[in-house]
Amino acid sequence: MSMFFQRLKEVSSPAVGLGCMNLSHGYGQQVSEKDALRALHEAFEMGYRHFDTATLYGATANERLLGNALKNKRQALLLASKCGMAIDVETGKRVINGRPDILRQQCEASLTRLKTDHIDIYYLHRLDPDVPVEESVGALGKLVDEGKIGGVGLSEVSAKTLSKAHKEYSIAAVQSEYSLWTRNPEIALIKACQTLDVAMVAFSPLGRGFLAGAIQVDTVFGEGDMRANMPRFNADNLPKNLAVLSRFQALAQSLDVTTAQLALAWVNAQGSHIVPIPGTCSIAHMRENLAADSLVLDKNYLSDLNSMMTPEQIAGERYSSAQQADIDTEEFNQ
């Protein structure tokens, strides 16, 4: 059993984890520290035990937030963070750096911000094209040996990169965007994770709000909302994608569940080694998402869902060309 799942079992974690990025970063929300702390406390009380953050999120603010919220609950949860991508304090720009010395520095800083002596899973947030993945993973492996992290993770990598990295040091988990309308991991990564006994952590399992019904044809994305630059959400593609969504909404209604719960149940059904980490600022939505843990879909419903929102039915790429340049995952148009 992967070290990742051993830890989930130790803390009695449900199948659904919590992506914490939204509280500090990504979608333009302005969440006060008081409200964000309350949301994290409520998440723990309702049953979440898997919390995911990163050095990048909020330019380190998200890690500080989790450190303050969860410091007294540390032994009762799986805490994950990421390194190798950060905001340059002088330029304000995102910088990818996978050099061993940088990863060690970032880990030490993350431990301080998170108010802990170890991080359960520490992901290389992005592959640095100028640093062989073996060097980055080897450095993270040394941090495992020193007890500063529990396991090594990768994010937005291909099956080929995972294989190379795993030969250097055992990989515990890989994060990849995966949802009903983003099937890229099905090209090769899901199988590779299963073969190597690596957990696959699915971020944005609700399609960045799209599958939860949060996006309408007239939705205006505010300043700092990354979706404003994503092709699937532009004025040409969004109406086409919303038309495809209607069949999914009808199925959720017939099952008397929300579209978010149906989307998460679909991800959970794709394999026992796959764990979704939906993110939200809403305590009500946290509760709604967690309830999907008990929703089991029969083969007929899964067959219907699998035929919805297949790659050829979705208009637009998931990332802009600039965003795409920073990732290593397989694409359907390759």
TrEMBL record:
Keywords: Oxidoreductase. SUPFAM superfamilies: NAD(P)-linked oxidoreductase. InterPro entries: AKR, Aldo-Keto_reductase, NAD(P)_OxRdtase_dom_sf, NADP_OxRdtase_dom. Residues 16-306 form the NADP-dependent oxidoreductase domain. It comes from the Bacteria. PANTHER family: AFLATOXIN B1 ALDEHYDE REDUCTASE, ALDO-KETO REDUCTASE YAKC [NADP(+)]. This is Aldo/keto reductase.
